[in-house]
Amino acid sequence: MKTILHTEWTVADICKGFTYNELEGKGLFGLDGRLTIQPEYQRHYIYNDGKRDVAVIESLLKGYPIGLLYFNRTIDGRLEVLDGQQRITSFGRFVTGKFSIVDSNNCVQFFSGLPTELQQLILNSPLLIFECEGDEKEIKEWFKTINIVGIPLNDQELLNAIYSGEFVNAAKRVFSNSQNAEVQKWSHYIRGDVKRQDFLAEALKWICANKKKNIDAYMSSHRHDTSINELVCYFDDVINWVSTTFTMVNRDMCGLEWGRLYEQYHNIPYSIDYISDRVQALQSDDSIKCHRNIYEYVLGGEKDKMLLEIRIFEESTKKAAYYRQTEDAMKKGTSNCPLCAMEDNANKTRIYKLEEMDADHVTAWSKGGATSIDNCQMLCRTHNRSKGNR
Ligand SMILES: [Zn+2]
Fold first, then answer.
1. Taking the complete model, does pTM exceed 0.85, yes or no?
2. Is the pLDDT of residue 219 over 50?
3. Is the pLDDT of residue 389 over 70?
4. DSSP assignment, residue 49?
5. In Å, how far are 194, 234, 248, 251, 292 from 189, measured between CA atoms?
6. Average pLDDT over the chain, rounded to whole?
7. CB neighbours of 310 closer than 8 A, spacing ≥ 6?
8. Most exposed among 54, 166, 263, 281, judged by the fewest C-beta atoms under 10 Å?
9. Ligand 1 mean position to 382 CA, how many Å?
């Protein structure tokens, strides 16, 4: 791979003919039309949070270097940004009046309002740019390596870079498009940032689990497909199933494994009203520690209580129940385990120590019994275990 270090270009050179697509949130071109700022394998512009973009401008105003930029020379002789897109887009947007900074006198300043010498300071800032030329594989390997600086690419952004092509482009238009009206609905169920490919990552995860493929293999085999029909249809099926089955929208639904739940339960018919009643009832149950799993619990016919992490009795409650029972048993001359007391063997009169006993719900939790002192009895280990997980 060939590399050249450029020191002759300034911020002004790069900003010549700078264009920015507000809708897609991406810088397009610079260097008088010779530079593509956001090639398809680059992520969206994510510096526009009023902190990182401002920090780039402040660095320039203080005369600090903003770090190495990497450009790639393509076969047709054009340049594209390999690394530095975020920084370039930040100064490009500032110079073209897209955002403001707050100066040392606490005044909001757009570029056009800055004193001429400060404007010149920014425009004349020298840049260090590595230009490289190599085959696609080399460039992409290198891109992977240099991206350990700055905000690292997440897994999906890396996959998009490695398998860039028609499929990724089409998928991004649906799943990484903040203008897509569906995103809001998806956000009820999927956690993440549309610009950082989190929805695309989830869509791929679901279809790949269904096809029993890994995501790399799937993206690789579809790389040059122009249709993303399969991906979109399956994703819509999952989302539609969730939103039809659960008519409520709760915050704890976000980020659940809906793809897995869909696979497991979508062939079972449910009564929407019944599901809704049960979810609501369980949500107001104080004994349940893990509210997020209520949906899966209800889908599974309320069998797997482990999912809910039912609250256990407090130590103080256990102690109180123990002393109450033991005192009573000593008076009667029977075992302090009420079940041992009913049996005809050596344990009939045995007084267990506190640590030899476990707390039990007199009326089972699943039958509406509360996790309170009134519903707590201590049983010997053997009886508690044999009573089982009711
Ligand atoms: Zn017992």
1. no
2. yes
3. no
4. S
5. 13, 15, 12, 9, 12
6. 89
7. 287, 288, 289, 365, 371
8. 281
9. 6
Q: How far does residue 375's CA lie from ligand 1's centre (Å)?
A: 17
Please give the distance, rounded to the nearest whole angstrom, from the Cα atom of residue 332 to the centre of ligand 1: 16
Q: Are 158 and 141 in contact (CB under 8 A)?
A: no
214 CA distance to ligand 1 centroid (A)? 52
Q: 146 or 161: which carries more pLDDT confidence?
A: 161
- Residue 67, SS3 per DSSP: coil
Q: In the structure encoding, which two tokens stand for residue 100, read together? A: 């403001």
Within 10 angstroms of residue 36's Cβ, the number of other Cβ atoms is 21
95 Cα: distance to centroid of ligand 1 (angstroms): 80
CA of 28 to the centre of ligand 1 (A): 76
3-state secondary structure 122-137: HHCCECCEEEEECCHH
Hey, what are 94's tokens? 């500032």
Helical ranges in 246-314 per DSSP H: 258-265, 272-283, 294-299
